[in-house]
Amino acid sequence: MQRNILEYLEDTVQKYPQKTAFANDKMGMTFQEVYQVSRSIGTCLHEKGYEKEPVVIYMHKHPHMIAAFWGVVYSSCFYVPIDEEMPKFRIELIFQNLKPRAVICDEATSGQIREFEDFTGEVLLYDEIAGYPVNDQALSDIRRKAIDTDPIYIVFTSGSTGIPKGVVACHRSVIDYVESLTEVLGVNEDSVLANQTPLYFDACLKELFSSLKCGATTYLVPKALFMFPIKLVEFLNEYKINTVCWVVSALTMISSMKTFDKVVPKYLHTVAFGSEVFPIKQFNLWRKALPNARFINLYGPTEITCNCTYHPVQKVPGEGEKLPIGRAFPGRRVFLLSEEGGEIREPEQTGEICVAGESLSLGYYHDPQETEKSFQERISPEGKRERYYKTGDMGYLGKDGNLYFSGRRDFQIKFNGHRIELEEMERVLDRMPGIEKSCCVTDQRKTCLAAFYMGEADPGEIRLWMKKRLPGYMVPRKIFQTERLPLTKNGKTDRGALQKRLEGRR
Hints:
It is built from 16 helices and 27 strands. By secondary structure, it is of the alpha/beta class. It is globular and about 70 Å long.
């Protein structure tokens, strides 16, 4: 069993030195090139005195950015990915938390970094450090002192206070995750993956570390293509992409625009998805377009190292059915807690999804209070003390033994004295003919319930559809048709933007 993620790279470069590891539509890097560059960067950071500390990587999304990740790890430091698309205000908050002494930039971002008043450290240009002479002895000494609980990266998630929280992952948690994930997805040396998310989200782990472990090739899909679904599918076909691990909104964007009437991703045999509930209507369009493909529902927050449950979809869900989020990965324990703190074992009873096991992150960087609140300890049913993470997601066990997601605790609202799951409303809406995708929100004062939708359905017919299937208090007072639902940076539906739109229309 590996103790350091760099062992994946070192094993793979021996097997496939000249094979493309990471590429975009303009260039690629072989495993040998990634190995050489990362060791150069690691040596440079070490000889400059950086040790076991955060190093920010502020670059355009590019294969060079990935090589810089592994370079930071070779130095014993841990990388913090940021790209040029991240808003300046958010970057400044991250810098205030990290207080980094070094930032790796490319030519395009090096001029921007000095605009951040809180950063007074060293700016390192990728092109200048990528060819730094390798010190084999120094890198060997670093590795000898390393342990598997050393941090490997920090990714920042949205905090309830508006301040981003830095989730710290270690080698052990990432290795345990990647070992399980590659087995579930069937990733091997013949896999060709397409990365959809920004590299500062943990979702990219699925592609980057799978390539590192298995000798697979990962292509970085140009962001602009997600505005043109036909061109996006053509990209998948041009590079013979056979495996994707994408957020649901990216997949539904393709299917809802009738793309499959013109072109299908003919090499795609594995489709993993997550982040949101997959509307059954859109899911069935994908199944129809790719009848021989494997579809796998993944679930898990950043704090437990990306995913903790999976469900290979064996049958087409029927009207009113939900896709389960499945069962726990090996080495994880997923359970439900009631509001009183007791573990729920009976089917059909909703509780908060909690996760214990090998892949839990170390907590939040420089935030012991938030860490203590979200990462707690208890005595397990086996009588052992265990650390677990409270996800804030609600779920229930089905009679089939699978876990089902029922909504975010924060999307469960009190409206006119009634407790409402906004995602339950959306599931009803998404089943209606003429609706491609929907999102339900309330205003801040919880005085108006509204629905936004993509599709050709008439608002009056939508209201009748919902009245027949939901209690009156769950029928939205306002219904708005929209060409597109706004998305957050990580590809989820942006409820906050829709809430502001609702309040602006009142």
